[in-house]
Amino acid sequence: MSWLKHWKEYNRLQKVKLAGKAAAILCAAMAVCLTGVLLLAKFMGPPPLLVPQTTVIHSSSGEEIGEISNSGQKRTWVPLNKMSPALIEATLSIEDKNFYNHHGFDFKRIAAALLADLRAGAKVQGASTITQQFARNLFLTHEKTWLRKGMEAFYTIRLEMNYSKNQILEGYLNTIYYGHGTYGIQSASAFYFGKDASHLSVSEAAMLAGVPKGPGYYSPVYHEDRAKERQAIILKAMENNRYLSKKEVREAAAAPLTIVAEKEMQKPKIAPYFQAEVMKVLEKKLKMDSKQIELGGLHIYTTLDVSMQKAAEKEIEERIDPDSSIQTALVSMDPRNGDVKALVGGRNYAESPFDRAIQAKRAPGSTFKPFLYYTALKNGYTPSTAIKSEPTSFAMGDGQQDYEPKNYNNLYAYDFITLSEALALSDNIYAVKTNLFLGPKKLVKAARQFGIKSPLASVPSLALGTKNVSVMEMTNAYNLFANGGKRVEPVFIKEITDNKGRVLYEHHYKQKQVLDKKAAFVMTDLMKGMFDEKLNDYAKVTGASIDQYLTRPAAGKSGSTPTDSWMVGFTPQLTTGVWIGYDQGKEINRINDGSYSKKIWVHYMEDALKDEPAMAFKKPKGVAGVMINPKNGKLATKNCPIKRKTYYIKGTEPTEYCNEHAGDLPMGSDGLDHKRKGWFQKVFPWWH
């Protein structure tokens, strides 16, 4: 039987050898596969970390005023060195204490987890490292399949081979979900505690580190008790890993926590109409892709001044009857560079996102007259030019009906008035006569020079602002008076950076001198007249109801139509336009509605500039200021009861002294007090 024994021994040895060869082949195959995987991972290089991030909109001072994100998810990237060290230590302690000592897989932890699962007969313990979780968050779904597990392992290898541990940890902490639509530690810190991730305390860090295990289950907003229990586990783990002492653990556990999440969720949106316009500029002017805007984690630095915006919204809310359906628009700009500092497109964005400041076009009324009078100054007029104010019928010819403009409330001087008075009192007869004398085409050309792009018509009534324009157009046009004749374009965005702080776009300011400096300054001085009651005549100056509120030099012009009320005015630092009216074009109530625009304008301007020094308009060379009698435009004498300093382009100032008061210079040689004669009578037979 010995041969049988030898045979069995031989077979056993053969099987051992075969098994050894199989094992060697298997090991070799596994080695080849592993080498192949490693070579492929290295060949493919670093996986792109295309993490959707929230784009943040900032005010001119850097304050966050809004966010743009897809699906309402809030994501903000912050560098590792800008995170609280306690947060990093808490996360490592609870998620992956051996993170800096493994190469993506913690095999001891995997073995321990398998053993625990076998003993329990179910999956009770996880073993994923931070790198594995980061790979899953970045590239994969959370379905439980072998294919997904294999892909997760491959991405883990690629991450470990091509990124440093700090880069991986930074990516993980910026992408993990913390509940309530917040992704990443910066968004979570702001949501739960109202602070940056760099300012988290040990107690707050331990609380946040516990949320990702079950964002809904461990949310301190919904389940404070569970969150505190989880916090205690993490603090103990931090002690075990020698990040904290026993005393520090006790202090952190006992520290009170203030959860501000509910307040943050209800935080009102600042300047919604302004932000909507920022989006249009991004897409239409800067041609930025919508995905880049929504997912790129950009930082958009705008021109908005939050304090000015709040002042504008406050004045509108307080001045307008809350039960009225009347609408409004306000644009406020820095005339020196075109920065839009505040913008209101309506009384309630949620109810009506239609932007009445930019999209709507309404008849500007008498706010259009300064463009006419600037042209007049360039064509022989001076502030003393006199024209008769009386009801006038203008023959249009060619079978057209005669044109009969009227003054407000049918009030007229029935005498000659100066250009200074005509503008301050908003005399319509003076304006139409001037437009016809110059030729209506010149007014259209002048409006284009001021940047008005809306369709206009060369008609006599254009002098009275009968063609529709936007509040933005009018405000920007008045900038040219405020800045000495330089055209600037409205600016909403100053700079855009990516999530790493690299500048993607920077606005380059441009100015072009398009007006004559001397004529622009004289016009500014004329527009100050609406607040100067020395120019009262057959009616009060149009700013008489608000001039007592002004504490600084200001100029402007009001305007009205049956359906619109306007006020556009400026200081050297700020130009603001206000419109009031009904969306449906219903006539406004002159007694109640008509005063809104002026009151909003003056109180807003005073509030917006309360911390700014009062500045005078800078007089250019070639302009002379003389004291005149505002009633006749002649040089004032000591006997004139009213004297007013008025500016003229040098060489055009009056040379004749007033002779209407006892003791004045002698009258004419014939002994008569001659009335001023308009030189326009030679041109138009209907001139009186």
Description:
The chain is an alpha+beta fold. It folds into 3 domains: 8-44; 76-265, Biosynthetic peptidoglycan transglycosylase-like (Penicillin binding protein transpeptidase fold); 342-608, DD-peptidase/beta-lactamase superfamily (Beta-lactamase). Helix content is 38%, strand content 12%. It is built from 21 helices and 19 strands. The strands form 6 sheets. A 5-stranded mixed β-sheet has the order 2-1-5-11-12. It has a 5-stranded antiparallel β-sheet with strand order 7-6-16-15-14, sandwiched between helices. Strand 17 and strand 18 (634-635) form a beta hairpin. Helix 2 (85-95) runs parallel beside helix 8 (202-209), helix 15 (369-377) crosses helix 18 (440-449) and helix 17 (428-438) packs across helix 18. The longest helix has 43 residues, at 2-44.
What structural keywords apply?
688 residues; alpha+beta; Beta-lactamase; 3 domains; 12% strand; serine-type D-Ala-D-Ala carboxypeptidase activity; carboxypeptidase; cell membrane
Task: Give the overall silhouette.
Answer: elongated
The strand order across the widest sheet is 2-1-5-11-12
Helix content: 25-40%
Tally of contiguous helical segments: 21
Number of domains: 3
**Radius of gyration (Å):** 38 Å
How much is the average pLDDT?
Answer: 84
- Per DSSP E runs of 2 or more residues, the count of β-strands stands at 19
Distance between the termini: 150 Å
For this structure, what is the CATH homologous superfamily of the largest domain? DD-peptidase/beta-lactamase superfamily
Strand content: 5-15%
CATH architecture of the largest domain: 3-Layer(aba) Sandwich
Give the biggest beta sheet: 5 strands, mixed
Counting helices, strands and paired strands, the structural category is alpha+beta
